[in-house]
Amino acid sequence: MSLQYVGLSEINGPLVFLDNVENTSYEEMVEIKCGDGTTRLGRVVQLEGKKAAIQVFEGTNGISLKNTKTKFMGKPMELALSREMLGRTFNGSGQPIDGLGEIYAEKSADINGQPLNPVSRVYPRNYINTGISSIDALTTLIRGQKLPIFSGSGMPHNELAVQLVKQAKISEGDGKNFCIVFAAMGVKNDVADYFKRSFEEAGVMEKVVMFINLSNDPIIERTLTPRCALTAAEYLAYEQDMHVLVILTDITSYCEALREFSSSKGEIPGRKGYPGYLYSDLASLYERAGIVKGAGGSVTQIPILTMPNDDITHPIPDLTGYITEGQIVLDRNLNQMGVYPPVGVLPSLSRLMKDGIGEGFTRKDHSDVSNQLFAAYAKVQDARSLASVIGEDELSDVDKQYMSFGTLFEEYFLNQGFDDNRSIEETLDLGWDLLSVLPRAELDRVDNEVLEEYYDHERAVKRFGLKSGPIIKELASQGN
């Protein structure tokens, strides 16, 4: 028998408080009937003895302390699930907003997920091809991995998210079982329209499940959006045997909603005002990626977050880096130079890359290309730093060659355009052509046998329109 409570003890921001509550539990859903006859939903977010704090999804405007009726529903928030979700658009709490009506639910599941036995996890292997050279070659995305993108205000992370949705694919054999769950949190109306329009124009909407939380929606809904998205992804992966790529943008908006919500509960703040449990809260989202033993599908995550003031030591990127398996960092200097996507190669990494590339996955020379490109580009930065002190004219011939290589690498490899979808073979071949610009003696991260097969200075000279022989500094100003 469920009890109905009349009246409230306190209202504070998005929270209402109720005294003398019996037999309730954390995360339990609540139905609130206002004096004007309207009904709102909430959930229990705090329990202290017999006092319960209830988070009201639609906000507390117009709620009265005296004649409000509260009914506890005896279950946590659940999301209706079906394969029909593909191609549909939902709001942050999982309600359809595309005008196509309700979905026919095959089941409902708790949005907080189920505890996963670590022993049942399978080590991620096999890569997801994004068509973006800087990601595919240097920070390869592995199925079942969580690989965040660290961006900044004004950077093209929304365009990058759309390009990932348009171009991401897996091997031909499993291609039909690949889909994307896309969740946008705290976005403006024009950004939400941009996402929808881009997916429809690219013809990929039928393989996308969209969750949209707008900036003027309640912050409570924003804290639910990634959980609804991950619940849908787990259903498609573990019960429909699909390989799911989950893109969450922007995690910073989620964390700011969490901070505001924590403040309204009167909790003691941690670093920069964020709640002390921010790490465990983010982990409860990120750790829902992976492959489960016996399941035919997988969940791969790309959380996108904007770093306040481009500060990578800010609590959100800092804690995210501890939980996830690498990061892709967007570089503001490259962005100002007109390079798209402006992926900063040196601070980016993929910790699971080594086991998902090479023969049988991408190509046998992938690891060699990646290692040598990293090493060469690091020397480019050293040469540029030295040139800023002593001047370019005083550099050695080798340093001048690295300066030229750096310009070509940024112009041809990193910069590829919004609609340029490169295969892994095209990316690796381009990498070898760029490395072939350098003297063979400088390629010290690659075995001689591999160099014999792939190094070709004359081909590089022809491809980039260079003069044969030693590369002089004038080439540094050469573009397309």
Account of the 3D structure:
- The protein folds into three domains: about 1-70, Beta Barrel (Elongation Factor Tu (Ef-tu), domain 3); about 75-350, Rossmann fold, CATH 3.40.50.12240; about 365-460, Bovine Mitochondrial F1-ATPase, ATP Synthase Beta Chain, Chain D, domain3, CATH 1.10.1140.
- The protein has helices at about 135-140, 155-165, 190-200, 220-240, 250-265, 280-285, 315-325, 330-335, 365-390, 395-415, 425-435, 450-455, 455-465; strands spanning about 5, 10, 15-20, 30-35, 40-50, 50-55, 70-75, 80, 90, 105-110, 120, 150, 180-185, 210-215, 245-250, 290, 300-305, 325-330, 345-350.
- Helices cover about 35% and strands about 20% of the residues.
- The longest helix has 25 residues, at about 365-390.
- The strands form four sheets. It has an eight-stranded mixed beta sheet with strand order 9-14-13-15-17-12-18-19, sandwiched between helices. Strands 1-7-4-5-6-3-2 form a seven-stranded antiparallel beta sheet, with no helix packed on it.
- The protein has about 475 residues and is of the alpha/beta class.
- α9 (about 365-390) packs across α10.
- The protein is built from 13 helices and 19 strands.
- The radius of gyration is 26 Å and the shape is elongated.
- Keywords: ATP synthesis, Hydrogen ion transport, Ion transport, Transport.
- InterPro entries: ATP-synt_VA_C, ATPase_F1/V1/A1_a/bsu_N, ATPase_F1/V1/A1_a/bsu_nucl-bd, P-loop_NTPase, V-ATPase_su_B/beta.
- Produces ATP from ADP in the presence of a proton gradient across the membrane. The V-type beta chain is a regulatory subunit.
- GO terms for molecular function: ATP binding; proton-transporting ATP synthase activity, rotational mechanism; proton-transporting ATPase activity, rotational mechanism.
- This is V-type ATP synthase beta chain.
